[in-house]
Amino acid sequence: MRKLKYIYLDNAGTTPMATKVVEKMTETMTNTFGNASAVNYYGRQARAILDNSRHVIAESINAKNDNEIVFTSGGTESDNTAIIQTAMARKNEGRHLITTAIEHEAVLKPMAYLEQEGFEVTYLPVDEYGQINLDDLKQAIRSDTILVSIMMGNNEVGSHLPIKEIGEIVAPTNAWFHTDSVQTYGALDIDVQDLKVDLLSVSAHKLNGPKMLGFLYRRDGINFPSLIKGGDQELKRRAGTENVPAITGFAEAVSLLPAEVKEEHRQKYLSFKHQLVDGLKENEIDFEINGHLEENQLPQIISIWFKGFASDSLLTNLDLSGISAAAGSACTAGSLEPSHVLAAMYGEDSPRVAESLRFSFGINNTSEDIDYLIKTLVKIIKK
């Protein structure tokens, strides 16, 4: 029996840890077990590593100071904290929030929770390219709007939203501006001062770092109590003993992605997109891209509608051939719920909603992987 070749094309779901990250974490777990809040020798060692890691990460987004970085358990906790704690801290100023119809569940569910608590949420619609209309945003902002939360890049279709322009619109108002940057940190260059964001969420496992770890950038002057109640860690902003080995692994993952490496990755992933699209066309596969191929798109994510082919059976057949991809988001997969992102872009009745696959590229992918993907898709669709 031929040995199956396994290919991972679900890097928007999670990524393999970089070798240097694993080495760094192993070394720290072995040698630095202290509690970073303790003042003893072991605690001081851990604290030095924690401070250094925080500095690396603060610099990576051009934060004004290191203490604007609060370590959390990941993107989900960062989103929940930014949304729920802002609402609780500012409810006397207003009870209106604005977001989009295509956010990750980690934003949509806290918003739904706030609606149950008596807050009002405006969900901005998107066009067929997964983009909002900036005029819609301008019209939605009111004097009692306390938060605007709009993702930087979409996890299902890869649309890259105009965060700088949104920042310009929100800055003069009373609202704070939060962006879920989980899919873009590690892929794009981010400057929080230039973008005028107040709050920004990131997860380590999307850029070859460890799981169960992320951060919330919280601009100086943005104040609310910790979502997690307990000790005074993270300058009283996030209770719980810091996972120093994972945090140093996160900083290592960030150090492996200077601007020029990110640019190399973007060019590589863009070439994969073109290779895939050209290969499908050459084999006369009936497909369409959800959103744009290049314009205002994240380079590492492509969502394709395979006309007349249910995404779950396509996914199963790819998996049997050793290829891991996704239909919609990995976080909602298994629930067989239609993609809320594609429904927002094309309407709930569009066949695209149940006939689309997402391929997302990572550091270990090669053009041979894409060739194998094309061959396998052709075999499945034309059999």
Short key terms for the protein model shown above:
about 375 residues; 12 strands; 2 domains; 7-stranded mixed sheet; globular; 3-stranded antiparallel sheet; alpha/beta; Aspartate Aminotransferase, domain 2; Aspartate Aminotransferase, domain 1; about 15% strand
Briefly say what this structure is:
With 383 residues, the protein is α/β, with parallel strands linked by helices.
Coarse structural class: alpha/beta
Shape, principal axes of CA atoms: globular
* Largest sheet strand order: 2-8-7-6-5-3-4
CATH level-3 fold name of the largest domain: Aspartate Aminotransferase, domain 2
Number of helices: 13
Gyration radius, in Å: 21 Å
**Count of all domains:** 2
Helix content: 25-40%
The major pleated sheet works out as:
7 strands, mixed
Q: Note the run of SSEs as H and E.
A: EHHEHEHEHEHEHEEHHHEEHEHEH
How would you state the average pLDDT, rounded? 96
* Euclidean distance between termini CA atoms: 21 Å
The CATH fourth-level homologous superfamily of the largest domain: Type I PLP-dependent aspartate aminotransferase-like (Major domain)
Q: Low-confidence spans: pLDDT under 50, at least 5 residues?
A: none
Number of strands: 12
CATH architecture of the largest domain: 3-Layer(aba) Sandwich
Q: In the CATH hierarchy, what is the class of the largest domain?
A: Alpha Beta
Strand content: 5-15%
What do you see in this structure?
The protein has 383 residues and is an alpha/beta fold. The protein folds into 2 domains: 7-17 and 258-382, Alpha-Beta Complex (Aspartate Aminotransferase, domain 1), CATH 3.90.1150.10; 19-255, 3-Layer(aba) Sandwich (Aspartate Aminotransferase, domain 2). Helices cover 40% and strands 14% of the residues. It is built from 13 helices and 12 strands. The strands form 3 sheets. It has a 7-stranded mixed beta sheet, sandwiched between helices. It has a 3-stranded antiparallel beta sheet with strand order 9-10-12. It has a two-stranded parallel ribbon with strand order 1-11. α2 (41-60) runs parallel beside α9 (244-255) and α3 runs parallel beside α4. The protein is globular and about 65 Å long. The protein starts with 6 loop residues before the first strand and ends with a helix. 48% of the residues are buried.
